[in-house]
Amino acid sequence: MASGGAERSHGSRRGRLQTAALPGGIATKPKPKLTAGAWEEARALIWAHRRRLALGLALMVVNRLAGLVLPLTSKYLMDDVIVKGNWDLLPKLAMAAGGATVVDAATSFANSQVLGVAAQRAITQMRKDVEAHVMRLPIRYFDSTKSGILISRIMSDADGIRNLVGTGLVQLTGSLLTAVMALGILVYLNWKLTAVTIVVLATFGIGMGWAFKRMRPLFRERGQIGAEVTGRLAETLGGVRIVKAYTAEKREELVFAKGAHRLFRNIAKTVTAMSSLGAFSGVVIGAIGIAVMLVGGSAIRSGEMTIGDLFMYVSMIALLSMPVIQLANIGTQITEAFAGLDRIREIRQMATEDDEDAGRAALPAVRGDVAFDQVSFEYNPGVPVLKQVSFEAPAGSTTALVGSSGSGKSTLISLVLAFNRPLSGRVLVDGRDLTTMKLRDYRHHLGVVLQDNFLFDGTIAENIAYAKPHATRDEIITVSRIAHCDEFIQAFEKGYDTIVGERGVRLSGGQRQRVAIARAILADPTVLILDEATSSLDSESEALIQDGLKALRRGRTTFVIAHRLSTIRSSDQILVLEHGEIVEQGTHEQLLAKAGRYRQLYDKQYRFEKDQFINPGEDFTPEPELVAPRPVPRSTAL
Predict the structure, then answer these.
(1) Which of 68, 373, 415, 554 is the most interior residue, by most CB within 10 Å?
(2) How far apart, in whole angstroms, are the C-alpha atoms of residue 531 and residue 413?
(3) Is the distance from CB of 23 to CB of 139 less than 8 angstroms?
């Protein structure tokens, strides 16, 4: 019989083509424009960290006031000490400048500490919030999104907010404050020269505003490209054995190189824009210098300014110009932060399963009566995967699903797990529509053993206890013996404390499968899903754990997808699916007697096992109840 693996791969491909408008798509909350959303996120972040930001701003004010002392003392140094010869004033000026320098350094250090902690706290909280939101998205979202993209959303995009709640925003405020103070002094010293300076700086400000508007989409695109490249790289590293087995290293190098060059071209554009701003800044500074030379020189000649006034004016021009020039760098950082907030906003606008659960009643207990009532489902419009499927699985019964690849077995299981919703019809649990139940409450009563079972990079004990984190070691050992894990676990030097590696790579396929079965036994579920639960086991290992599986199934509503039809003979009912429809339904004996589709599947596997597992020349006598009453012509078999 064909396994359900191909169907699952097709399902993933269909999921990637899925849209939010489809019944199986991702629901989204009402979504404002991204720019407005980013501002809303920024305001919330700033308000959440307002105390540290206020302290940082106060320190910044002191820092910038201290920074004014040195240029202010330059006037008295020139006019009173050097020109007038008042040398007694020199030590006082030096002490004032030295004290201001100490205050400047101390407040700068304190500010970086205060705001640095605030930024890291904000980044950590943002990562936690986004990760929590992503983990609560419907499973169909993960079928259509690469894991690397999600990692980028959680880690990289959140990192950019340091420029909002860290030094970036406060530096921007401090720069503007310094510029305002310096501007007041400049107007007092020479308003005509200051008017020329303002015109030049205003032109620069307009140019920066235009540049930031053009650069923000580039930063947003950079985050998207980076996420895609990371996603593909994660896939390649996760499937490195397949890559090497098919000598596809060069192909993966080319795929990564294309992505890296896309990222390079984007970064090159932003570097060009930044370089243009830098060059423009140099022109602005040069223009202001020329204006100071011409207008300031004329003012000294006419007696409107002293040499000290001009010296202080030049120092103040630096205090005015440099903060404005710094806006290019700070503004770029903040623009990048807003681009990251835009992308995070997209994720957080998606409705989670918790949002869907909000209006639903609690589910204290589940008996396990499961029924499908005229259920149809599509991944893509017009391509039905299930068609008007109806059946009942009473509490405590075992329902087996058989059929060729793509017949709808795994899709039916995904509906039982509430991973997808029917296009039409209802999935009933204890007589209640599954769409009206709190999913988290319902899934507390589920246990799952999949064909490709996932183990985390931890100890064997931790993986078994994943279903029940506070399980005792005795409980873990008990379920391991039922699943026949204990014998191979005890053979390891560290026993249950053996590290299994990423995805359980240090265990064989059969060992991983048995650990997954032990995990499901420990969960003590009401509804149990066994999707090719023994596919990774050899015949001997399978025979060992059949008793464990029978014990696990006892008293639970169980759904089984099995590769070997011999493993489902004891099922209370068998559903034969073809092209999304139930074409036969009954017990093993009933379906054999019908001589229909199930009989074809059984006879084909019977012949295969005879050819593959019986030595040439050895008599093969199957169990009497498994002998087909009438042979099925080969032309009608699969």
Answers:
(1) 415
(2) 8
(3) no
